[in-house]
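lol forgot to send this yesterday, sorry. struct tokens for the thing we talked abt
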């Protein structure tokens, strides 16, 4: 009888130990499954699918800080493109400059006002001048805020009889602002100044 009781007690200990092992294993598997599921959900939320020309394209979302240098350079390039790409058409000039001035502060407006007062834009219209600009390099220092930049570009000024290539160097600072349709990058150019704008080459047409 006592042997039977000992056997029952031993069996109960084994059953209890086995139950504890099963519970611990189940808890471990459940925790691991939850961790993997949460990780997969987060990864799937970072993926964006775009429909372009009937094709589904996949994009990966990332934080703004990771994209600051790329977005800053594109903002600076876009501003200079609008400010310096001009045609002998008053509406084109006004449209481009309006877009440019959304991307910068009063320092750009002051340069625009000075050029307008000097008759620069009316000279483009009366002289049938086309002006284009191409960025050579854009340096942005994101180690300090607001971010300082320097822009190096080449202007191509096409007149009736000549084509002039001109070097352009400008500098300024970038401050973050709210994104909008007029300012999709969410930057504002401050303290913008033209450091150099000299002729490099004149080509006869």
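and heres what i got for the seq, position by position
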């Amino acid at each position: 009888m006592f042997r039977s009781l000992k056997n029952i007690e031993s069996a109960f200990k084994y059953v209890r130990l086995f139950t504890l092992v099963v519970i611990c294993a189940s808890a471990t598997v459940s925790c691991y499954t939850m961790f993997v599921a949460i990780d997969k959900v987060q990864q799937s939320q970072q993926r964006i699918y775009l429909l372009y020309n009937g094709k589904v394209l996949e994009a990966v979302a990332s934080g703004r800080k990771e994209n600051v240098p790329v977005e800053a350079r594109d903002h600076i390039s876009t501003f200079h493109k609008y400010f310096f790409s001009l045609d002998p058409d008053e509406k084109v000039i006004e449209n481009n400059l309006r877009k440019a001035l959304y991307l910068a502060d009063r320092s750009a407006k002051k340069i625009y006002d000075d050029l307008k007062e000097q008759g620069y834009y009316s000279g483009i219209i009366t002289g049938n001048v086309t002006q284009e600009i191409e960025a050579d390099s854009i340096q942005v220092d994101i180690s300090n805020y607001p971010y300082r930049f320097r822009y190096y570009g080449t202007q191509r000024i096409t007149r009736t009889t000549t084509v002039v290539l001109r070097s352009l160097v400008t500098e300024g600072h970038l401050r973050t602002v709210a994104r909008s349709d007029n300012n999709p990058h969410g930057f504002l150019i401050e303290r913008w100044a033209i450091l150099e704008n000299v002729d490099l080459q004149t080509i006869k047409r």
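Residues 2-48 form one domain. anyway ping me if u want another try
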